[in-house]
Amino acid sequence: MLKKIFGSALFGVEAFTIAIEVNVDKGIGYHLVGLPDNAIKESNFRIAAALQNNSYKIPGKKLIINMSPADMRKEGAAYDLPLAMGILAASSQIKAEDIENYVIMGELSLDGSVQSIKGALPTAIKALEDGFKGFILPKDNAKEAAIVEGLNVYGVEHILEVINHFDKKEYITKTIVDTRAEFQKDLEHTEFDFSDVKGQESIKRCMEIAASGGHNVILIGPPGSGKTMLAKRLPTILPPMTLQEALETTKIHSVVGRVGSQKGLIAQRPFRSPHHTISNVALVGGGSYPQPGEISLSHNGVLFLDELPEFKREVLEVMRQPLEDREVTISRAKFTVTYPSSFMLVASMNPSPSGYFNDPSSPVMSSPSEMQRYLGKISGPLLDRIDIHIEVTPVPFEKLSDEKNGESSIEIRKRVTKARELQTKRFEGSDVVHYNAQMNTKHIRKHCKLDEESMQLLKIAMERLNLSARAYDRILKVARTIADLEGVSSIDKTHISEAIQYRSLDREGWLG
Question: I need a labelling partner for 416 at 20 to 30 A (CA). Which of 36, 109, 265, 335 fits?
Fold first, then answer.
C-alpha cells in the first residue's frame, strides 16, 4: 500500500514542501531514498523503538520510502515523526484518511515523545501558501508557528497524540496566538536604559544620530570609559520594530532554532555580540549545511564587535560586502543561498594596545608607532564603511557620583522615531532604501544638496583630512540625519560641521 505524507525542508531562510512516499510491498527490507543525510538514515532505529514502546511496529515487509524532490538534500532528525506516521498509515495500523492535508514535522525520542525542531515559522508560512489544512509539530515550537494567521497549528508532546488524532479517538487542541497582541506585549519591554549612563552627553548625542539614520558607528576610548555600556543600550533607542520586521527577524532565528518555546514572535531588536575568536563562516554564515551567521541574526538590530582590532583581519574583511549590500550571498558548487543582513554595526576599540595612548597618568603607555600598528589591523575600506567615528573619554568622578538620572531611552527614542518617520516619507517610493544610511549616490545627490558655504567647508575638510569619496558620502548622510533630527529640510554648515567631527579616525593626531 502506498501512502503520501508531507514535511518540509529549509533552504536559506525559506522552506520547501517535501513529499514522503511510503510503499509497503512483499518481501523484506528497508530502503530510504531521496538524498537523506545520516541523521535521517538513522531514523529507522529511533522510529522502531518509539513504535514498539507504544504497542506499534515497523511491518516485517519491504518498505520503500522516497523523499521527493529526490535531487534536494534533506537533513536533520525532524523527519522522524512524518516517516513514522507514513509507515503506520501505509501498513494500515492507523486510519489516517486525511493525513495528506497536513504538514508533519518532529524528532522522536525512543519513548515516542516529540522533540523540538528548527524552522517552524518558515515551514508554517510555506504550509499556508501551499493550502494545507494544518501543521502538526512539537509543542515547544507551536507558538512560533501559530503566529501565521489562517493556518491550523497543532502542538504535540507524544506520537500517540498524533495517532489518536488521525484515528479520530482524541483530537489535538489547536494552538492559537493573537499575533498583534503578542507583538505589542513585548514591544516596550527593555532590559537596559540610557538613564543608567552617567555623563557622556556628547556620546549620547552621537548614538542618537546613529540610531536616527541607521549609521554604523565605532567608539574609541580607554578601558572603563563606557563603550560597551553605551553599545548595549543602542537597541533601546532604535524605533520600535514593525510587525513585518518582527516576522523577518523571527524567521531567521527560527531557522537556527533560537526562538524559544515561550516566545512566538521576536518583537525586540536583536543585539548580537560575538567573541573576537569567531570564524568568518560563523560571522557571515555558510558551512557544508548552510546556516545564517551572526550578521544575519543581527538583521533589523545591532551587531556589536567589542575590541575590533582583536578580530582576525580576514573575518572583518568578509563583512565589507554585506555592509554595503545589506545581504550576504553564500555560493558553493551545488547551491547559492542569500541571507538578509540589514544591521547596524557598532564597534569599540582601545586607542592603543595598552588602552591609554598619550595619557601621562596611565600605568602603561604606548608609543605612537605602537598605536599605528594597532590601528593598522583595521583596513581603510572597512573604516570607510563606518559612518561615525567617536572618541569616548572616561567619566569624571563628579558625574559618576551624581544621583540624578540622565535622559531615558524612551525620550530619546521619540526623537529618533520622529526623524525616521521623515526618512520613511522621503523614501516611500523605494523598495531598498528606508533610512539615510542606506542611501546610494543617486539618493545623496537628490536629498543632500548643499549651499555654497557648506560646500566650501566640506571641500576644506576633504583636502585637509585626505578623505576618500566614500567618506565624503558618509559625511553627507550623517549631515542629512542631523538635519532630520532638527526637523529641517535643507542641510546647512552647522550640520556639515558636526558630521565632520564624527570622522575621528580620519584626522591626524586624533587623540592628542
Answer: 265
DSSP state of 432: S
Q: Mean pLDDT over residues 249-253, rounded?
A: 93
Query: Is residue 511 over pLDDT 50?
Result: no
pLDDT value of residue 175: 93
- pLDDT-derived band at 510 (thresholds 50, 70, 90) equals very low
In the chain, where are the structural domains located?
Answer: 2-177, 185-421
> The whole model's pTM is what?
0.88
The length of the chain in residues reads 512
Indicate whether 386 pLDDT > 70.
yes
| Contact by Cβ (8 Å): 435, 427 | yes
d(CA 443, CA 445): 5
The residues pairing with 413 across neighbouring beta strands, listed in sequence order, are none
State the Cα–Cα distance between residues 142 and 261, nearest whole angstrom. 8
Residue 179 has pLDDT above 80, yes or no: no
Pairing state between β 134-138 and 152-156 = parallel
Percent of the chain with pLDDT over 90: 57
Q: CATH: 3.30.230.10, 3.30.720.120, 3.40.50.300, 2.30.30.60. Which one for 185-421? A: 3.40.50.300
The domain 2-177 is classified under which CATH number: 3.40.50.10260, 3.30.230.10, 3.40.190.10, 3.40.1110.10? Answer: 3.30.230.10
Q: Report which of 20, 36, 35, 43 is spatially closest to residue 159, judged by C-alpha positions.
A: 43
Alpha-carbon span 119 to 256, nearest angstrom: 7
Q: Which three cell numbers stand for residue 386?
A: 563606518
φ and ψ of 154, to 5 deg: -120, 115
**Mean pLDDT score of the chain, rounded to an integer?**
88
pLDDT at site 355 = 61
Using an 8 Å Cβ cutoff, are 148 and 128 in contact? yes
248 grid coordinates: 523577518
